[in-house]
Amino acid sequence: MSKTLLITGGAGFIGSHVVRLFVNKYPDYKIINLDKLTYAGNLENLTDIEDKDNYRFIKGDIVNSSFVENLFQIENIDAVIHLAAESHVDRSISNPIEFVQTNVIGTANLLNSARKSWKDYSEKCFYHVSTDEVYGALGETGLFTEETSYDPHSPYSASKASSDHFVRAYNDTYGLPIVISNCSNNYGPNQFPEKLLPLFFNNIINNKALPVYGNGSNTRDWLYVVDHAKAIDVVFHKGKDGETYNIGGHNEWKNLDLIKMMCALMDEKLNRTIGTSESLITFVTDRSGHDFRYAIDASKIEKDLGWKPSLQFKEGLSITLDWYMANQNWLDNITSGDYKTYYQQQYSKR
Ligand code: NAD
Ligand code: DAU
Fold it and tell me: Is 252 an annotated catalytic residue?
């Protein structure tokens, strides 16, 4: 059925993969990508679909309530997939208020505009894309389920937890149709090189130190970004009103083990002597409040909606590294200018 779908944050890492999937798979949908184009938003991520008839980009800020309200009035929006956010934990430690603005106020503005403009809630959906970091940190064992209590530690995860609560509050209070998913760490093409994998790729290519926080024993559950986009498609179309779905890769890695595997793959791809990249590893001061371990129990989305990850990690990692090697212009464009200042601020005193 034809509908107007607003995707926020569609020029970012995950958002661009979601926009591509929906534009290509649903030619009947009118898809609007609303993005502020912060340092993390990049229209180069979407050149292959920018001319499609069912796609339109609008530059705008979700923190601007009158702008968001107008957009809902003018565009007759039927559904929202909300990905726009400040997304990097280290930046949230240096600049927490920006995270409150975008992640909390921005989400509340979207919810409120949907509430006001949607006269009738049938066939409407507000889908909020969130993170497993809202659940806090695990020890050596256990998994996050949809019932795990919220226990965020960083300003980033606190802002995402707050936005999740607002989304549920609009469902409980006004009956706004909503669905939420909480996903583990994504990796893949187009990720901004502040996150572990693309940052380490860039440093390996440039023979720069690889800054491992603490002793490298922190653990993350990695999922290929296209598998996340496919899960978002399934949750959007089959998820039940008011429900939460955890999304994860069944793919836990201690940071140091993952980094060593990546170094070995890079030596192979660059025809370097084995051990060259690994010799760049440098242990640096830990991230403050660093969550020890994240791991997702994804059985609900698997059983109820029939989704599961498609790609084996080593294959996904290799595809990802090949993409970065083939797209070094993409990386060069975003690592000049402001990125240098960011890198200096984050890493020079560690
Ligand atoms: P990203 O930082 O790569 O992209 C965020 C996008 O949001 C950018 O295009 C940016 O320009 C846009 N944006 C930021 N502030 C905005 C504003 N005020 N108004 C409009 N647009 C704005 O983020 P990502 O890694 O692609 O994450 C997308 C979403 O998925 C976020 O909500 C994040 O919390 C969530 N998430 C991310 C991961 C992950 O591993 N990256 C995992 C689980 C959930
Ligand atoms: O779990 C989902 C979350 O995953 C998302 O909600 C966030 O948006 C996303 O940024 C990601 O958060 P992390 O903090 O886990 O990702 P990051 O890539 O920053 O770090 C991954 C791990 O690597 C973490 O334990 C910190 C460590 N690390 C990271 C960087 C950037 C390092 O050791 N050195 C580094 O330079």
Answer: no
The atom number, within ligand 2, closest to the CA of 197 reads 18
Instruction: Please identify which of the residues 29, 55, 127, 156 carries the catalytic annotation.
Output: 156
Distance 218 CA to ligand 2 centre (A): 10
Phi, psi of 139 (to 5 degrees): -85, -155
Ligand 2 lined by 211 (C-beta under 6 Å)? yes
| Overall pTM surpassing 0.85 (yes/no) | yes
Q: Tell me whether residue 135 is one of the annotated catalytic residues.
A: no
Give residue 164 CA to ligand 1 midpoint distance, Å: 15
- Among 65, 69, 166, 60, residue whose Cα is nearest residue 118: 69
- Distance of alpha carbon 282 from alpha carbon 279, whole angstroms: 8
Give domain limits for the chain.
4-190+222-253+292-311+340-347
Q: Virtual CA dihedral for 216, 88, 152, 222, nearest 10 degrees?
A: -50
Alpha-helical regions (H) of 245-337: 255-269, 299-305, 313-326, 328-335
Closest ligand, as measured to the CA of 34: 1
pLDDT in tens, the chain (350 residues): 689 999 999 999 999 999 999 999 999 999 999 999 999 999 999 999 999 999 999 999 999 999 999 999 999 999 999 999 999 999 999 999 999 999 999 999 999 999 999 989 999 999 999 999 999 999 999 999 999 999 999 999 999 999 999 999 999 999 999 999 999 999 999 999 999 999 999 999 999 999 999 999 999 999 999 999 999 999 999 999 999 999 999 999 999 999 999 999 999 999 999 999 999 999 999 999 999 999 999 999 999 999 999 999 999 999 999 999 999 999 999 998 899 999 999 999 88
Any atom of ligand 2 within 6 Å of the Cβ of 202: no
Q: Is the CB of 277 under 6 A from ligand 2?
A: no
Pick one of 3.40.50.1110, 3.40.50.800, 3.40.50.720, 3.40.50.620 as the CATH number of 4-190+222-253+292-311+340-347: 3.40.50.720
